[in-house]
C-alpha cells in the first residue's frame, strides 16, 4: 500500500492506495502516531484507491479514535469504495466514524 499526504493549514489528507492489511497497517499507524498529526483540525482519509481493508487496518483507525477526539481532531473518511464501506457497516464502525461520499463533503465538516 502507498500513502500520499497533502496538507493545508488545518487539514491533513492521507490518500490510501492499495490494500490495508497487517503489513501495511504498520505504515499507516506510524503516520497517524506522529505528534504533528494532532496539530491539524481534520485528518481526512481518501479511500478512493483503497481496495481492501483487514481487521488490522481497521484496528489502526480504532486505536487512534480516542486520541484524536481528545485533541479535537476530526477523522473523516471519504471516497470509500462500496466493498470497503460494507466492512465498516457490518462491524458497526460507520456509527463510530465519520464517512462521507466526497472530498467536498469532508472539507465542509
From the structure above, extract its key features:
4 helices; alpha/beta; 33% strand; 109 residues; Transcription Regulator spoIIAA
Write the layout of secondary structure elements.
Elements: E1 2-7, E2 11-20, H1 22-33, E3 42-53, H2 55-71, E4 74-78, H3 82-90, E5 98-100, H4 103-108
Parallel strand pairs: 2-3, 3-4, 4-5
Antiparallel strand pairs: 1-2
Helix pairs in contact: 1-2
Write a structural description.
The protein is of the alpha/beta class and 109 residues long. It has one domain: STAS domain (Transcription Regulator spoIIAA), CATH 3.30.750. The protein contains 4 helices and 5 strands. The chain has a 5-stranded mixed β-sheet. Helix 2 links the parallel strand 3 and strand 4. Helix 1 packs parallel to helix 2.
Tally of helical runs: 4
Could you give the distance between the termini?
Answer: 27 Å
Largest sheet entry: 5 strands, mixed
Q: Regarding CATH, which class?
A: Alpha Beta
Which of globular, elongated, flat, extended, rod-shaped describes the shape?
Answer: globular
Radius of gyration: 13 Å
Q: The CATH topology is what?
A: Transcription Regulator spoIIAA
CATH architecture descriptor? 2-Layer Sandwich
Name the quaternary structure.
Answer: single chain
Number of strands: 5
Mean pLDDT score? 96
The percent range for helix content is 40-55%
Amino acid at each position: 500500500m502507498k500513502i500520499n499526504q497533502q496538507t493545508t493549514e488545518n487539514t491533513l489528507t492521507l490518500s490510501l492506495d492499495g490494500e490495508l492489511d497487517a503489513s501495511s497497517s504498520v505504515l499507516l499507524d506510524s503516520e497517524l502516531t506522529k505528534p504533528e498529526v494532532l496539530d491539524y483540525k481534520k485528518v481526512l482519509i481518501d479511500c478512493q484507491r483503497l481496495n481492501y481493508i483487514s481487521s488490522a487496518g481497521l484496528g489502526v483507525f480504532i486505536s487512534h479514535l480516542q486520541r484524536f477526539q481528545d485533541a479535537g481532531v476530526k477523522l473523516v473518511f471519504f471516497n470509500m469504495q462500496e466493498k470497503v464501506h460494507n466492512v465498516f457497516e457490518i462491524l458497526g464502525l460507520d456509527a463510530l466514524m465519520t464517512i462521507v461520499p466526497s472530498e467536498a463533503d469532508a472539507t465542509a465538516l
